[in-house]
Write a structure and sequence with these properties.
By secondary structure, this protein is an alpha+beta fold. The protein has helices at about 25-40, 70-80, 135-145, 195-205, 215-220, and strands at about 1-10, 45, 55-65, 85-95, 105-115, 130, 150, 165-175, 180-185, 235-240. It is built from five helices and ten strands; from the N terminus they run βαββαβββαβββααβ. Strands 1, 2, 3, 4, 5, 6, 7, 8, 9 and 10 form a ten-stranded mixed sheet that branches. A hairpin with an 8-residue loop joins strand 2 and strand 3 (about 55-65).
């Protein structure tokens, strides 16, 4: 049988999603907890691997098992064996055609900036701190250049292993709520560090260091070495993954700030 899971986690205590032998990972924690419930080793596959310090409220994974457990038993039993900074939000049995990564059609991230002149305490590892005032209107003007299908070579990590730099951004909006600034972005898929590199460029524009057109200039360079600074990981959240309706997956989205 194949099951899909909705997973949320605070990534600040983990060395990223992907399992590593000598470092704590979200994948390692989830697999260990599921294996306890299944009474056999379990390997999970995720919709998108997140880096060290990156969080998720809408990660989706799947796993295969011969263990006969109800969806509720998987949910309660797995959460009972997980650390407090990781939780399974929902469980659903799916067909063998479902794949958490390859069946996904869209992914949505939110990047949270704490914008005040004094560094944060409670939000230190859950937001990206910027002490200089940011103008969200100019940030939005720069963001508008990135919407659509483009070659995002300038916005991906040098070590990115994706075969193609082509990605399509469907939505990219900048908003403010008091001291918090949100960058909400949805695309068919993302390259390594793509969201953080976009955030770095937009923050430079918001500070007035660059004109909004610079976002497009960086895009046209198609060269990461000519791009902006990579923003810190702590403000980044994977908030939702979309799938075809045929799979009828639950939709739950935890409010961030």
């Amino acid at each position: 049988m194949r099951f899909a899971l909705g997973v949320e986690y605070d990534g600040s205590a983990f060395n990223g999603w992907q399992y590593q032998d000598h470092s704590p990972s979200v994948q390692g924690a989830v697999e260990q907890a599921l294996s306890m419930v299944a009474n056999h080793p379990v390997r999970v596959h995720c919709a998108g691997r997140t880096d060290t310090g990156v969080h998720a409220t809408g990660q989706v994974v799947h796993f295969d098992t011969d263990a006969l457990r109800s969806e509720r038993s998987w949910l309660l039993g797995t959460n009972a064996n997980l650390p407090k900074n990781v939780a399974i939000v929902w469980v659903k049995q799916v067909s063998e055609e479902f794949h958490a990564r390859f069946s996904a059609t869209r992914r949505r991230y939110r990047y949270v900036i704490f914008n005040r002149d004094v560094r944060p305490t409670f939000h230190a590892y859950r937001t990206s701190w910027e002490y200089r005032p940011l103008d969200i209107e100019t940030m939005q003007q720069g963001a508008n250049y990135l919407i659509g299908q483009h070659d995002f070579s300038s916005y991906r990590a040098v070590a990115c292993q994706a075969k193609s730099p082509q990605r399509e951004i469907y939505d990219l909006k900048i908003s403010r709520d008091g001291q918090f600034i949100f960058i909400d972005i949805e695309a068919n898929a993302f390259l390594h560090h793509m969201v953080r590199n976009i955030a770095g460029v937009l923050m430079a524009i918001g500070r007035g260091e660059k004109a909004p057109e610079w976002a497009n200039e960086v895009l046209e360079y198609r060269d990461r070495r000519l791009g902006g600074v990579t923003a810190p990981p702590y403000g980044l959240y994977l908030t939702h993954v979309s799938y075809p309706e045929i799979f009828s997956l639950p939709h739950s989205e935890t409010r961030i700030f």
